[in-house]
Hints:
The protein is α/β, with parallel strands linked by helices and about 400 residues long. It has helices at about 60-70, 105-115, 125-140, 155-160, 165-170, 180-195, 250-255, 260-270, 275-280, 285-290, 295-315, 330-335, 335-345, 385-395, and strands spanning about 1-10, 15-20, 25-30, 40-45, 50-55, 85-90, 105, 145, 205-210, 215-220, 220-225, 325-330, 365, 375-380.
Amino acid sequence: MKILVINCGSSSLKYQLIDMEDKKVLAKGLAERIGIEGGRVKYEAAGKDEIVIEEMLADHKAALKIVLDSLQHAEYGAVKSLDEIDAVGHRVVHGGEAFAESVIIDDEVMKAINDNVEIAPLHNPPNIIGIEACKEIMGDIPMVAVFDTAFHQTIPALNYIYALPYEYYEKYKVRRYGFHGTSHQYITGRAAEMLGKDLDDVNLITCHLGNGSSISAVVGGKCYDTTMGFTPLEGLAMGTRTGDMDPAIVPFIMDKENLSTEEMSNVMNKKSGVLGISGVSSDFRDLEEAAEKGNERAQLALDIFENRVRKFIGAYLTEMDHCDGIIFTAGVGENSISTRERVIDGLASLGIKIDRDKNDMRGKEAVISADDSSIPVLVIPTNEELKIAMETAKLV
Ligand code: AMP
């Protein structure tokens, strides 16, 4: 079975064609700058050179058409015809309270995804456009929606209700949803396998540390708590997002700087986090380099980021009777040796210890804790596309 995985952003479309027999990626790439000047589609079939097609991409449908033509291309294609593709799996950011699992897309599902636009105005519209473009070009091929929020739907009310008047939950569905669910779920499954535990029996703290970052407490294989909330702004300090702060700061800064709600939202989402603190970059490689050269604010940004990771690990340990593993994933978690080392070194009072030699690697599945660590620490590269393909294959 061959599954096409589609992940649409407002001006981009990421894709992978995966053969589920051996989980091999047959082709992958990215269409960028959809609807604006400078459109291009990157395409790479397994074992072949990357191809870049530069042309104006009027909309997502135009981008998808180029992707599908490339996939069937006589010279660099990955399939002879589109008939070889059995199903399409779509990443959908917000499933709200309607979806605790992936679902086959039908009219009712589309209506529910549309209903969630109100609480995910930035994220769901491009996902809907991507689904509709596929439907138009690929006809009635089975399609599955895999939601970023679904894994977190098992979080109990004591962790999803905010201490606001309860009517805001009832009227507007203001509650914790959590994001990066596909990633947390994928590494939970892999961690259970690596630790030799039944999925229903495994307690983990999963740390997805990238440009956007979140940590989840997983109890009995199910999500019990997570740091992102009503939107992906809550929790850890991120590349450009604030994470937690006193909510009273929002009206205070809006008054002082005379900002509209949209401008304030932009500050909190795009100008804050480690970029805002350091004034250097949102990219952790740049920050590490600047800190090494003595830039104090870059060092402060890294210190703040790592300290929050530690604080949430500490907090989540209190939400489980024991922990089978602490897992690092995503760009920073998979690759930053120094971040992992400093986070775990700060947990020494809990008996959690890193093995510096084992930690001296990037982007591979590995146990990086010392043999006498009270809790194993693992690195597991995330693979959201494979997880979406697996969910799609399961349903069709
Ligand atoms: P993601 O959002 O998961 O793609 O992660 C992106 C982040 O990972 C960026 O901030 C990168 O700087 C960071 N990253 C990637 N490679 C490294 C590395 N070798 N060391 C530190 N950070 C890295």
